[in-house]
Structure formats: C-alpha cells, structure tokens
Amino acid sequence: MKRPDHNTYREWLNLEVDGVLPEESRAQLTEHLAACDACRAERDELLVFADLLHKARVPVREDFRAQVLSSLPTAGWESRSPRTWAFPAAVFLLLAGIAAAVMGSRGPQGSLLSALVAVTGMLRASAVAGAGLIAASWKGLGLAFSEVLSSPVSIGVFGVFVLSLNLLLVSLLRRRRSAGLERSSLERSGRRDC
Amino acid sequence: MATGLRIHSMTRGAEDPNDEQLVAAVLSGDRERFGDLVDRYQGRLVTYLFRLLRNVDDAHDLAQEVLIKIYQVLDRYDPTFKFSTWLFRVAQNAAIDQIRRRRLKLVSLRQEDGEGDGRDWDLPSPERGPYGEMRNRERGDAIQEAIDALPWEYRELVLLRHFGELPYEEIAQLKGMPLGTVKNKLFRGRQMLKDKLQGFLED
Predict the structure, then answer these.
(1) How is chain B split into domains, by residue range?
(2) In Å, how far is B47's CA from the nearest CA of chain A?
(3) Model-level pTM?
(4) Which residues, given as ranges, of chain A have pLDDT below 50?
(5) CA of B106, closest CA in chain A: separation in Å?
(6) Under an 8 A CB cutoff, do B35 and A77 touch?
C-alpha cells in the first residue's frame, strides 16, 4: 500500500484535532507521529492554536437568557389551532343533530336516514347558494367591464391604471433581484474591509 | 405545526433532550424550553457574531434578534436538518445584512466627516492585572486582525467551525458544499490563520 505524503499527514492532523479522522487513517498517523519530529511539532502547534481560539470566546452577558425570553413575542403558530378533522366532524354532527331534532319533531317518520337526507339537503342548499354568489360576482364583474369600455375616457383611465400597476410590480421585482445580487456579491467579495 | 416531531417521554428532569425534542416541547406549549435552547447556543452564537461584527454589544443585540426570529418561525423548522445548522444560517444572513447596512452608514459618515470605522474589540479579560489585560487585548486584536485578513471563503468556514463549533457535515450542509471541499478549505484557512498568529503559538 502506498504511504501518504507529508502534506496528507498534515491534513490528517487537522482532522484528528477535530476528532473526525477515520480509524484506519488514525493508526497510520500514530505510527508516523512516532517517527516524525516535524509532524509532532505541527500537532502540538495545532493544539495550542485551537486553545488560543477557544480562549478568544466572548463571555455572554449574565442576563442574556432572561432578556431573550422576556422579549419573545407571541408567535403566529402559538395562536394557530392544529389542523385536525375534529372541527369539521363537530360541525357535521351538530348539523346532523339539528336535522334529527327537526325531523323527530315532525312525527314517527323521523329516523336516522331521514336526518341524513335532511343534512344532505342542507349541504346541497349551501352549495347552490355559494355557486349563485360566484355567478353573481362574475356577472357583476362583467357589468363593470362593460361600463368601463363604454366611453373613451374611462378606457383611457383604465389603461393608465393597468400600466401603473405593471410598472409598480416590475420595479418591486427588480429591487428584490438587485438586493439578492448585492448579497451574493458581498459573500463572494470576501468583505476584506468588514 | 410540529408535524413529524415527537416528544419521546420528555419530562422536566429528563437527561439532555436533543434540540429537536426541545423544539417539539416549545411547539407543544412549553415556552420555557426555548430557554434551554438559548442556554445551549448563546455562547457560540454571540462569539460567532462578535467575530463577524467586531462589537460585543452588536453581537449580543443581533444574537437576541436571531433567537427571536427563530422563535417566531419555529413551526417551520424542518427536523430532517440540525437545529444548529438552521440557527447559524439565520445568524450568518442577519450578520451579512447588518454589515451591509453598517457599510452603507459608514460610507455616508465618511462622506460627512471622515471618521474611522468605530472598531470595538475590547473584551472582558479572563486574565487579571494590568499586564494580563494588556496581553488579552493584544491577543484578541491579533486574532481579529488575522481573521479579517482571511479571504471570505475561508473566513466563514473557520468562524463556523471554531466559534460556531459546527461539525464538518453541518458546515457542508449550511454552505451547500461537498464535505471534501469543507475539509480542504478549513485546512487552508487554518494554515493561513496559524501563520499570522505564529508569535502567539510559540509563547
């Protein structure tokens, strides 16, 4: 097996100091260290270096934790209820209960089946009402457009409005893009003077 | 919220819950557990930010901002990643934003009255006495100058490794680099830093 060169041992020393050198490489390194003064000196220097950086840690203010905890706002997720089927199921049961009560009050024909039929009828009625509202909205929009297109002045005003809206959106997109570019160029530049 | 996270019979006296368990506990309503996460990371976070911002007060303020930001979006935490990777990514972005803002401010200040860059490298000294304090300050300044002289691509990795204390794998994930590249850059960055600090290594 080919023996690693000196530079490889130096790289391994760094990994060893970080505790990430694979076991098989460590055995070779240990063997090499026993015979190489330069690498032993390098290892000692690396340990002193790591210790030097460790000593350069900043002491954290004693009240830091308390300050952070007292500054925590109410996060959005705290007030949000978990997504479960409990709420829809409860609504359905409530509706079923009301329907059963209504059907029961009408006489002996009130049964679970008729209650379910009644609930289905209520849901169908709600769906029809929703669809009607949507249709009415579209109809209203159609009426508004026909009003806008009825005179040259209103067409002009509408055109200017659409154009301004587009310009606004384009400028917002450009600003966001330039902010991103600035950030990446800052990262690349190395910020020697920061 | 907190889907996919499980609290494995975690109680108040349980031994060393991991970060993911602490996050799950916070999300299930135990706000105090966030304090445990603060305890776990405050030292590394403040030191890491200090080495980027070079001002103790700014480092504390930004560390607090980062932790609050993390808390606000804690429900978006993806437990398939390490919490520390996420925390230091947010911290690095926040520091870059602050440096950019500071640089803009500095340019306008220099234009107005030509003042310096307001460096603040003073640290409370672990060594007592006038000589000890002088020695600490000298050492602190030398370390900071050596770090500042590193090209950014090495500096950010050295800071994440030595002051953020992130393992190689997390640095690779955070920077989106192959593990081999991280090892290589850290090796080179350290060599550069070591060369500049040679005088302190021989003491």
Answers:
(1) 16-120, 125-203
(2) 5
(3) 0.65
(4) 189-194
(5) 11
(6) no
Number of Cβ within 10 Å of residue A15's Cβ equals: 18
Angle at the Cα of B201 from the Cα atoms of B195 and B203, rounded to 5 degrees: 140
DSSP class per residue in B171-192: HHHHHT--HHHHHHHHHHHHHH
Distance CA B56, CA B122 (A): 8
Using a CB-CB distance cutoff of 8 angstroms, which residues of chain B are in contact with residue A64?
38, 42, 46, 60, 63-64
B149 and A192 within 8 Å at the Cβ level: the answer is: yes
**Residue B139 reports pLDDT greater than 90:** no
Shortest CB distance from A68 goes to which of B64, B140, B193? B64
Check B197 against A52: CB less than 8 A apart: yes
**Where does B62-139 show beta strands of DSSP type E?**
none
Q: Which of A68, A178, A186 to probe by mutation at the B interface, max B CB count within 10 Å?
A: A68
Nearest CB to A20; choose among B52, B68, B168 = B168
Which of A34-38, B111-115, B153-157 has the weakest average pLDDT? B111-115
List of chain A residues whose C-beta atoms are within 8 Å of the C-beta of residue B167: 20
ipTM of this complex prediction, to 2 decimal places = 0.77
Helix locations, chain A, DSSP H: 6-17, 23-35, 37-55, 64-71, 76-79, 86-105, 112-148, 152-189
Reported as a single tens digit per residue, the pLDDT across B43-88 is 999 999 999 999 999 999 999 999 999 999 999 998 888 999 999 9
What CATH number belongs to B16-120? 1.10.1740.10
Give yes or no for a contact between B174 and B93, defined as CB atoms under 8 angstroms apart: no
Quote the CA–CA distance of B144 and A165 in Å, as a whole number: 49
CATH fold label, B125-203: Arc Repressor Mutant, subunit A (1.10.10)
pLDDT over threshold 60, residue B181: yes
Q: How far is CA A132 from CA A124, A129, A142, A190, in A?
A: 12, 5, 15, 61
Closest A-chain CA to B42: A60
What is the Cα–Cα distance from B196 to B145, expressed in whole angstroms? 9
Query: Do B163 and A59 make contact, defined as CB atoms within 8 angstroms?
Result: no
Within 8 A of A83 by CB-CB distance, chain B residues are: 1
